[in-house]
Design goal:
Layout lengths: L4 H11 L3 E5 L3 H14 L3 E6 H7 L10 H21 L4 E8 L2 H10 L3 E4 L6 H17 L3 E6 L3 E4 L2 E3 L10 H8 L3 E4 L4 E2 L11 H13 L5 E4 L7 H9 L12 H7 L4 E6 L1 H17 L8 H11 L1 H6 L4
Parallel strand pairs: 1-2, 1-11, 2-3, 3-4, 4-5, 5-8, 6-9, 8-10, 10-11
Antiparallel strand pairs: 6-7
This protein binds glyceraldehyde-3-phosphate (G3H), 1,3-dihydroxyacetonephosphate, sodium ion and zinc ion.
């Protein structure tokens, strides 16, 4: 059944472990993610990034989808996840990842998402607090979990590309929790979004530990979230590039580093890029083996995107 994410976060916090949260972009990915979690007997956190909603709605130029089209995508995916959640015996969370548009975030809450992220991390501190609090108040009335973000991750994030990261200040974490009422908080501590995280990237364990210690001292019950945590497996990168992909500087976060910080209040670990890499490799293989694809079919549309804008597919999209 569908459950609020808070239920899982509390368990993870108590047991000092973390759940993986996986970005899914199509109904097939929803199915695959649920099946793999069933085999591990684990609850599943499915998360949807804003630009995937336009894609799900069938908009070819999905990066420029309108709010209405995005909401249409949200309705489609919520319906599919609700159906799937009825059929499986594992708890399912449907979470909006990196929500920026208030109206879109509220639509997710209204449609039945059990968790949303409101990402006000690019705003000045007080404005981030005001926006996040508004969403938290709205969501909590309906039993929906809320994630906020403090600090800016380098790399690609939704429609923006950030060259520099701004680490989270552990001394602002408690104030953020207290003033917004969020259930969990994404921190910037050395990870970044996308497949190019740096050759020898090192997570700042100190930021997680200091945030966690401050929270314990103030008796704050929330948890922390690790974004940008893909490991970027070599076999996928090589597989894509053998199929004419042009991935450069592809390096992920060594899993050991993530596992080392998990006991310090990190209850959720976000993975999106690894999924898109796996799917990209598959798509490239499919196109190589299937020459007669109807241009007007959905698959044909995607083929066109790959040919016209290969950087989109390899760096942040999927299908
Ligand atoms: O954080 C949101 C998206 O997952 C960004 O894409 O996984 O390539 O960073 P990414
Ligand atoms: P990756 O780019 O490491 O997969 O990060 C995903 C993420 O943080 C989604 O919010
Ligand atoms: Na951010
Ligand atoms: Zn993220």
């Amino acid at each position: 059944s569908l459950v609020p994410m808070k239920l899982l976060l509390d368990k993870a916090l108590e047991g000092k472990f973390a759940y993986g949260a996986f970005n899914v972009h199509t109904t097939n990915e929803v199915k695959a993610a649920i099946e793999i979690h069933e085999t591990f007997r684990s609850p599943v956190i499915l998360q949807i990034i804003e630009f995937a909603t336009g894609f799900i709605a069938g908009r070819e130029d999905f990066l420029n989808a309108t709010l209405e089209e995005k909401i249409e995508g949200i309705k489609i995916i919520t319906e599919k996840v609700k159906e799937a959640a009825k059929k499986t015996d594992i708890p399912v969370v449907l979470h909006l990842d990196h929500g920026h548009d208030k109206e879109l975030v509220k639509a997710c809450i209204d449609e039945g998402f059990t968790s949303v992220m409101i990402d006000g991390s690019y705003l000045p501190f007080e404005e981030n607090i005001a926006l996040t609090k508004e969403i938290a108040d709205y969501a909590h009335k309906k039993g929906v979990t809320v994630e906020g973000e403090l600090g800016v991750l380098a790399g690609r994030e939704d429609n923006a590309n950030h060259s520099g990261s701004l680490y989270t200040d552990p001394n602002k974490v408690c104030e953020f929790f207290e003033k917004t009422g969020v259930d969990c908080l994404a921190i910037s501590y050395g990870t970044s979004h996308g497949a190019a995280k740096g050759k020898d990237v090192v997570i700042s364990k100190e930021i997680a530990i200091a945030s966690y210690e401050n929270m314990k001292f103030k008796n704050i019950k929330g948890s922390l979230v690790s974004h940008g945590s893909s490991t970027v497996p070599k076999y996928l990168v090589e597989g894509i590039n053998k199929l004419d992909g042009k991935l450069k500087n592809a390096h992920g976060i060594p899993i050991e580093q993530v596992l080392e910080v998990v006991p310090y209040g990190i209850a959720k670990v976000n993975v999106g890029t690894d999924i898109r890499l796996a799917i990209t490799r598959y798509i490239r293989e499919y196109f190589k083996n299937n020459k007669n694809i109807d241009d007007n079919s959905r698959v044909g549309q995607i083929k066109k995107i790959i040919e016209d804008r290969p950087e989109l597919i390899d760096e942040r999209v999927y299908l």
